[in-house]
Amino acid sequence: MSILVLQGSSRADGNTEQLTRLALEGLPHKQILLRELSILPIRDQRHERGGFDPVDDDYESVIREVLRHDKIIFATPVYWYTMTGVMKNFIDRWSQSLRSADYDFKASMAQKKAYVIAVGGDDPRMKAMPLIQQLKYCFEFVGMSFESYVIGKASRPGDILQDTRALSDAMLLNRELGS
Description:
Shape: globular
Helix content: 25-40%
Largest sheet: 5 strands, parallel
Structural class: alpha/beta
Order of helices and strands: EHEHEHHHEHHEH
Distance between the termini: 9 Å
Number of helices: 8
Number of strands: 5
């Protein structure tokens, strides 16, 4: 099974990326750094004749990469008790993919397994739960199997390495992803 990481962090080598790296240690995977791409907000045209106009950004290349993999890791810092804006833009654009004639998005996504790695600084094991629930609903809507998640506590660069629970959970996720 192939693994794809959608990295929603806006900071290079931040706590979320460090925890994700630990969770994937020794496992072949591909990572997409959403911060390095242009994924524009959705222009809602669901109720307009003809559906969605083409958008000149990187979304289609990312979604085609998602469709090529079996296990998708959504890695995001917790920003204001939810995912980062770039991750939210990416998921909002699923509305466009649901109406694409190029592929059967929902059927394809139903073949995938979803995982979440989230890191926050303000009591994240409690306050990130709405984010986890939000993603669970998104995955359910497209038929993806939500397998598991890891939540870490960190604020300053490198803090994640002090969160022994998150490090342990990342090791467990590593075993799960490798099986």
